[in-house]
Structures are given as structure tokens and as C-alpha cells.
Amino acid sequence: MNPNLSDLLTQTDRVMSGSNGWHADRESTRLSSDSVHVGVDLGTAYTVLVVLDENHQPIAGTYQFAQIVRDGLVVDFVGAVDLLRKMKSQVEERLGFSLKSAASGYPPGVPQAEVRATANVLFGAGLDCTGLIDEPTAANNVLQIKDGAIVDVGGGTTGIAVLKKGKVVYTADEPTGGTHFSLVIAGSMGSTFEEAEEMKKDPKEQTRLFPVIRPVMEKVGTIVRRHIAGRKVDRIYLVGGTCAYPGMDQVIHEVTGVETFLPGNPLFITPLGIAMNN
């Protein structure tokens, strides 16, 4: 496990909120587009852009809810390009210099044609795509675990990667994620999907909604249990924004019977790992 993980995620939270204290007029003489590492994560629910310095420390970034990807596939190419171009511009204004290149990621098992589509979104937004990495490997760039399972629960899918001696030896990806939470909430509350999304993220609503979405959490746990069966997994590491919902880690632990670890802000782990690949 990365001994600096907590500090890294705390700094990333500050960067994403714009409160990290980084000033372009002070630092731009030291940093440039050639000395930073940029990662773009085109998720089912959130698109994240993060910039790291030469020491892989976060210095700028932004993220936005957008339904441009479904189950790892880019379904709104024009919308994805427009969104990423806008996010790129926002981060460049904060940094004081242009971004030229970035790496991106993809879920396990996605067809190569769709992987190329992800690269083309970057090209369309004015970024050279200098690396494409599968999401579990990206997440482990940050976690640095040797043995166990990384479970990435995003908006649309649950990805599982089993690691032995630091290497990914098995991967799988199945539908079920945060979007399904929102659909269940909308159906139960008689609300729109957009209203359900906001309720899901509201800390004041989360305890009340927990019994409503617990069956979806249990389904995620069942998916994980099936894929790690017989693989001698002693610990599960959760990443992906959906895992931030209070109680998610306990449910996964209960269903799988395997010790489950939840980092500080699981939404940013994979984007950070993608940037480290740039």
C-alpha cells in the first residue's frame, strides 16, 4: 500500500476544489506543458482532468458530471470533445500555460475500437494522447498494492482486477454502478433521474436512501464475490466515485466476506494513476 496515499488524496481534494494555494504567476517559471503529467478519465458519470507536477503531485484539475460514456463506450463523441475542451481551458487558465498532451484510461475488456475512440476524444479537444492504460493498472499506480483485488465501481460498471506480486492477473467488468443507484432512487421516490442524482450526493439524504440502494450495493458485492472466488484474495480495495457512498465498503465486506479498504476519495484514484502514465 502506498504510504503517502492519504496525503496525495488530501492534496487532490484541495486541487479539485481550487483551494490548493498554487499560483500560476509564482510557479509558471518552473513548470510548463513539457514538465507536467496530465490524466483524463472519461467516466460514465464524471469526467475528470488532473495535472501532476514532475514529482507526480497534483497541482490543478477539474471534474464534471456528464453522461457521455456508457459502460466504457463513448456514446456522445461531440459532447465529450466539447466538455473536455472546456475543462482543459479552465485548467490552463489556472495554470498559466497550455496543456499539449494527456493519457487516458479504459475499463477491462473494452474493444480496441472503443479504446481508440477515447484517444480520439483527446485529439479532438486539442491534446495528444500519449498513453492509454487499463483502469485497474492505473489505480494501482496510486495504491501500489502487491496482492489483493481492486474493485472500481463507476457510474455504469463494476471492474475487478486481481493482483499477485504487483501484477494484474485477472480482470472483469460488468454492468452495475452509480447510475443504477440513481435509477432505483428515482423509481422509489417518483423523481427524475437528475433529481435522484442530486439526492444521492446530498449527505442529508444518504442515510434515508441507504435502504433503497442497498440491494444494488449487494449486487455489486455479488459480482465481486463471483469473480474473486477461488483466487485467494485477502483484501479488496475500492476505487471509483460510487464507492464514496456511506456504507458501501461495509456492504461489500458483508457480501464477499473479504476485508475491504476504502481510500479517502475513491473518485480521484484512477485519474491520478492515468496521469502518472503520461
Structure description:
The protein is of the alpha/beta class and 278 residues long. It has a domain at 9-134 and 268-275: ATPase, nucleotide binding domain (Nucleotidyltransferase, domain 5). The chain has helices at residues 5-17, 24-27, 77-95, 112-124, 135-143, 178-189, 193-201, 203-228, 248-256, 269-275, and strands spanning 37-42, 46-52, 58-65, 69-70, 73-74, 101-106, 128-134, 148-153, 157-164, 167-175, 235-239, 259-261. The strands form three sheets. It has a five-stranded mixed β-sheet with strand order 3-2-1-6-7, sandwiched between helices. A five-stranded mixed β-sheet has the order 10-9-8-11-12, with helices on both faces. The protein has a two-stranded antiparallel ribbon with strand order 4-5. A hairpin with a 5-residue loop joins β2 (46-52) and β3. α5 (135-143) packs across α10. It is globular, with a radius of gyration of 18 Å. The protein starts with a helix and ends with a helix. Residues 24-29 have low confidence and may be disordered.
